[in-house]
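Components:
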Amino acid sequence: MARRKSEDKRNALLAAATEVVAEQGLGAPTARIARQAGVAEGTLFTYFGSKDELLNALYLELKGEMRDALMGAFPRGGSVRERAWHVWNAYVEWGVAHPPRRRALAQLAVSDRITPETRARTEAGFGDLSALIAERVAEGALRDQPFAFTAAILGALADMTMDFVIRYPDQAETYTRAGFEAFWRAVAA
Amino acid sequence: MARRKSEDKRNALLAAATEVVAEQGLGAPTARIARQAGVAEGTLFTYFGSKDELLNALYLELKGEMRDALMGAFPRGGSVRERAWHVWNAYVEWGVAHPPRRRALAQLAVSDRITPETRARTEAGFGDLSALIAERVAEGALRDQPFAFTAAILGALADMTMDFVIRYPDQAETYTRAGFEAFWRAVAA
Amino acid sequence: MARRKSEDKRNALLAAATEVVAEQGLGAPTARIARQAGVAEGTLFTYFGSKDELLNALYLELKGEMRDALMGAFPRGGSVRERAWHVWNAYVEWGVAHPPRRRALAQLAVSDRITPETRARTEAGFGDLSALIAERVAEGALRDQPFAFTAAILGALADMTMDFVIRYPDQAETYTRAGFEAFWRAVAA
Amino acid sequence: MARRKSEDKRNALLAAATEVVAEQGLGAPTARIARQAGVAEGTLFTYFGSKDELLNALYLELKGEMRDALMGAFPRGGSVRERAWHVWNAYVEWGVAHPPRRRALAQLAVSDRITPETRARTEAGFGDLSALIAERVAEGALRDQPFAFTAAILGALADMTMDFVIRYPDQAETYTRAGFEAFWRAVAA
DNA sequence: AATGAATGAGAATTCATTCAT
DNA sequence: AATGAATGAATTCTCATTCAT
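Structure:
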């Protein structure tokens, strides 16, 4: 029987793609990704039918990983503020800890090579986050806006915060807190 | 004397580049840009020495245009809130009125094909905005953070707001106001 | 395992380059060379990283081949005149037998696309010829001039002789002899 | 009445072409030649219908100029050796004094962009030289070879000599003499 | 006649994808 | 399944030549 496809190689390709896309953008050659992954050029295509397929898989992978970081150890019993802080902090820490993943994800997020279907599959799994926001929204200043508006505010401010934390690492704590407080005020009652 | 280089053609090329880059990203072929501008492939290069040069010129153009939109009719005598509202509103209106320009500018802003020199030339002309922010910062909740932090909050929230306005155009007014209020609370005293 | 890079294809490309360069000069399109070699345009670049690399390889190839023709069967034990005649005759025969190689080599020799390093690698392997000339020089009319002067006389007269042989092939023998005698007198004691 | 074509501009173009071709070869852009001549790109084509036409005109020009240098002040009354020396010396001096003209002429001479007709027109005007050679030939070692053979020997050796003089300018005199003596022996009785 | 912008056919090179091994 | 050579369409840029001014 022939060799089975190896999960290791698949992962190596995704990791390589993360690095290379972060560095060179979506125009990065598949040959470079394969090399970085330590496999032959052609092998990439036995794991992913095309470059677009690889890119979509990578989007799913990174978004999923981010979600795990956000929602792992989510303090279900905490106060709204505690839960919000948990998410905020986990998100910022993830982004700061993995600049290439963050950069790659940002590129993918705005690319039209990611299919609507892929985008849809990505939205699942943020249940607790939604609930958290719903709660906040229900009682806060944004009670008349949809969910997504508050979520977007969180995302936008956290992303911007990461930029500052990455640029001034020794002020990480300060910016993370200041960003959160700004968010909290923005959505406050 | 021979034909003069025509400002019209230069503008047509920049406009075409805006469209095409918004649609296909920075990888967009120069041939497509030229075609869209209604000139021959080679002509692009008599106006811009290389694709990078075109891209840098486009960045200057778009950023400058945005600045004019923001700072035109700036109410120097108004209250801080009035001035902030003016900037917010002008920015959102600009982005909503010109999605391709906004998309193209966003792509250029994060590209490493834009030289530091080009970036530097871009920073001038935002004087009143800086002053506005300085004032707000001096007295607000973010008085211990640098300027740029407040400016980044404004940018992040306004960008996010535009996404909503574009997606739900009949709620434009609502989102624009809600976004501004969120911003105002975020940086409030 | 995948296909091996084929020595055949490499040789076909060098042979094609010889023909095409001889015909059209160094400006000859790589596409034409590839076609003549019977491979795709892109294939040329898997064998030679760039056109310049191909040209340098071709120079090495042709010069080496010429050297083999000159120095093969070199009559080490013969008299100075015998050895000189051998070199002369072999050189002229080579040039006459392979006009495209000769033409291509002539173009390459004066091109600034050939790197100094390539030129240097070319100089090895002419040992016996140098010795031959040294001997002739030591005792001849040119004993006060450097080596290279005598070598240049040989090259110049032989090249000119080839032109005549090529133009009047049925006088090949005559011109070859007459040229050699002129050379011999020129450097004689 | 419209302006007449100016002989000055034509000459400027030929001079510019000499420089530029010497430096960059026959692939040199016409735009560069025009710039060097101080005229507009298009102007080149009112003086020469095409690049090839310019090249052919340049060949005629340079070859003619060389002939004038060779044959001017030709000592009709001198001995054969005196006359030969005059030609030799004038040729070497011309080449050494004008490296760009020599380089350009060399490139043109081997190019297939020079038409047979142009080449033919070039052969006229070397009357005295022919006579000189004829005389030498009639009595010398090459009495059984055609004219052109002796002429070619002269050309080949003189060209080679120029290379040495240009490379070692302070030995100019030495090489010029040594080269001539080699030539004289080569064709001697 | 002079100018130089406009043109579009190449030119060298890159790259996603296929396929022989 | 894995490899990497082979492919040829696509890309940026150049350049001889034309033509409006």
